[in-house]
Amino acid sequence: MSVLVNKDSKIIVQGFTGSEGTFHAEQMIEYGTNVVGGVTPNKGGQLHLGKPVFNTVEDAVTSTGADVSIIFVPPAFAADAIMEAADAGISVIITITEGIPVKDMVMAKEYIKNRNVTLIGPNCPGVITPGEAKVGIMPGFIFKKGRIGLVSKSGTLTYEAADQLVKAGLGISTAIGIGGDPIIGTPTKEAVELLMNDPETDAIVMIGEIGGNYEALAAEYIKSTGNKKPVVGFIAGQTAPPGRRMGHAGAIIGGAEDTAEAKMKIMAECGIVVVNSPADIGATMAELLKA
Q: What residues bind CoA, as annotated (predicted)?
């Protein structure tokens, strides 16, 4: 078992023939990911990277049985792409696109609410189950198979934490980059919950950042489970001044509880082992598991 994607996932790429879609689809295929085709309107019937191109997601699903989509569609059209994938019966939609207007994401999230679909992103690095499927833009060679789940708002910190965990001899079960926008499909709590319920995940790394309440809600959930799996947490943006956006569109301190200090305090109170530096994530997890 794994979370969200595995060797049996059938993946299509929306925005397949564009420069970003082409580059990352090629990387995914080289990794061994089961990419079964892609979608670019008005280019159906062609082959691209040796895979069939379809005009619509519905055509792709009908022909290939695809159940996962990764979206590299430009921001102005990305919300439509999300809704099209949901309509076609895709169960996991991973949206890499950055810069989707907030009002578009509000509409897309509401549209898919009552459908049987998990949306990851937007503005995220994707999801990887090492050795099985890389559905995203992460450097696959960093991730090695293991039993530590990883949830992160930050793409680069996802890679940093994965590298440390691998070097500590632990490895990754599934890494989920949830995205740093104000409106995302799967907040921290829901992503942590997936890993908490995964029998192949023994412990979890949770990386958050300033802004919003995702980490506090996740911490309260972890406490409610009786801390059944060890969790190491880190919050980025500890030196960020209030009122200034730092990096991600969602990373802005809007109130006292949005600060890194406040989030770290809540996490610690809920039984999460909080580190002050991302450099300590791997070693701290290794020590925690030994104990």
A: 17-20, 43, 96-98
Annotated binding site, which residues?
17-20, 43, 96-98, 159
Instruction: Decide if 24 is catalytic.
Output: no
Do 143 and 282 share a domain, yes or no? yes
- Name the helix (H) or strand (E) containing 64: helix 57-64
CA trace torsion 2, 134, 164, 289 (10° rounding): 0
Domain boundary among 120, 151, 172: 120
Beta strands (DSSP E) in the chain are 11-14, 35-39, 47-48, 51-54, 68-71, 92-95, 118-120, 126-129, 133-136, 145-152, 172-177, 203-209, 231-236, 273-274
Q: Are residues 283 and 161 in the same domain?
A: yes
State how many domains the chain has.
2
The annotation places the binding site for substrate at 159
Read off the pLDDT of residues 51-74 as tens digits, 9 standing for 90 and up: 999 999 999 999 999 999 999 999
> Is 270 among the domain residues?
yes
If asked whether residues 83 and 28 sit together in one domain, one would say yes
Q: pLDDT, tens digit, for every residue of 78-131?
A: 999 999 999 999 999 999 999 999 999 999 999 999 999 999 999 999 999 999
Is a pLDDT exceeding 90 seen at residue 241?
no
Task: Give the model's pLDDT for residue 77.
Answer: 98
In a domain, residue 5? The reply is no
Q: In angstroms, what CA-CA distances link 9 with 4, 64, 65, 101, 216?
A: 9, 11, 10, 29, 32
Same domain, 64 and 22: yes
182 and 156: one domain? yes
Catalytic one among 248, 259, 263, 273?
248
Range(s) of the domain holding residue 92: 11-120
